[in-house]
Amino acid sequence: MRASNYFIPTLKEAPSEAEVPSHIYLVRAGFIRQLAAGLYEYLPLGLRVLRKIENIIRKHMDNAGALEVLLPILTPAELWQETGRWEVYGKELFRVEDRKGRLFALGPTHEETITDLVRKNIRSYKDLPKNFYQIQTKFRDEARPRYGLIRGREFLMKDAYSFDVSEEMAVQSYQVMRDTYKRIFDELGLDYLMVEADTGAIGGKYSHEFVVKAANGEAHIVYCENCGYAANVETAKYEFELDRPPPEEEKPLEKVYTPNVSSVEEVAQFLGVPPTKIVKTLVYILSDGRKVAVLIRGDRELNETKLINYFNVLDCRLATSEELKEMGVVEGFVGPIGLDLPVYADISVEGLHNFVVGANEKDYHYINVNIPRDFKPVEFVDFSTARGGDPCPNCKQPLKETTGLEVGHIFLLGTKYSEAMKAYFVDKDGKEKPIVMGCYGIGVSRLMAAAVEQNHDDSGIIWPESIAPFKLHILALNTKDPQITDVAEQIYKQAQEIGVEVLYDDRDISPGAKFKDADLIGIPYRIVVGKKVKEGKVELQERKTGKKEEIQIPDIPALLEKLKG
Ligand code: ATP
Ligand code: MG
Known about the structure:
single chain; binds magnesium ion; 26% helix; alpha+beta; nine-stranded mixed β-sheet; binds adenosine-5'-triphosphate; YbaK protein; five-stranded mixed β-sheet; BirA Bifunctional Protein, domain 2; Rossmann fold
């Protein structure tokens, strides 16, 4: 491709809304442009990268026996109503109406559609197992579209759905996908973790997220360098037993005057005790209307996902000041003793002695509180957000903490959708049974951003070879010098003949501008054709290492063969 005929609108400045390197560089280097919040245009360079990512995914999915389909983007509301998700999905679902007033959603995911296809076309165990996938644009009206391709409102996803005769077989399909995902992310050249993720209602070990380590990621992960364990902080079990404080003799309960101090830090400072001796009492309103008090040690953070899962509700939130007042609860001084709410305690509170809680009275706390002497929680539950330094649940070594971008998610669904939508098959024994499902997503466009988050420097992008828009960038430094252009043209022709994907910068601009653009665009190898042609030489440069090497012109075909790989 000749740069003079191509379209690479590079920019000196990043757009003001771009905060993270992938957003900044993908726009500046001319890969993408924003149309509106969360909507992006892929320019020729960007589309090349996107297609490469797609093709790697497609190859491995095909190898795993998955069957590619393409489902409509418009999905009828009735299907969503069958599973209850027309309501549950809330505002994230883009809803549209046709001329007859029939409602549709722009598909944010396709469990309903694919289950409908399967229930209409698969009747017997003989037709199973099946795994269908598609690579398609998805729509989600995200509350906060941001970070460029990382969180768009329209984005490219690979979604796959497996259908099996039993849970046992579904687990096998799941494992095949898990291994397939590893091959995909390995080939993409990314540094990632496979982490145990929240399984919500399903439970068990059958949800994994694939997370690309990145400073700007929204996923919070703990992992163990010793044994390889990795989990979302929302899922990781808190091994309290290994963190348990030494026993103490119980002291008499005392109510103390603590004027105007209510946060953990303030109380700790006022009473001269560490935060680990303070127990916070949080009042939550669950989405089914229940009101509960939850205790957690002062130094730990409560995890709402764990709370939601434990109480088996869709959502939860902290009670507002108004609501606390209505319940007769004194804000800032809430405590479990004498509280008229069911009290649950995080396991960090179990075995704690002589601790501090609010006294349910303005400006007062209790000190030297002990369980079960002073109160008794309904149950001790793991509500804590895991963090670096916690003991690994596997091998007890201290965990590390990192942030990352979720680029893939695999999930054993069980029969949730097949039962709701009556996707049954007739088994060998003649009985009708619900098909057991799994679903498997990859954020194709988010991967493009993730690759840049992980591979860039101060000058621009450094593409992993497997998804670089081109393998080779030829820079003809002075297009007015026929000796230079002759050699550059010749290399360009040879590269095309040999089959090396090549971008040839034949534009009549300064060498400085060419180098700047080349650094920004981030093609892995560069052949610079400049004054040295007079000595029969050009320079080979590697974008990643900055390594430079002089090459004799007659050696170029051999070099190109090598680059072709
Ligand atoms: P997140 O927690 O980031 O919102 P999710 O759990 O909603 O992700 P899934 O429904 O599992 O995501 O979607 C499959 C994959 O699609 C995700 O792993 C992610 O890589 C990608 N993805 C999800 N939402 C977006 C988005 N708004 N923009 C780009 N990619 C997305
Ligand atoms: Mg989401």
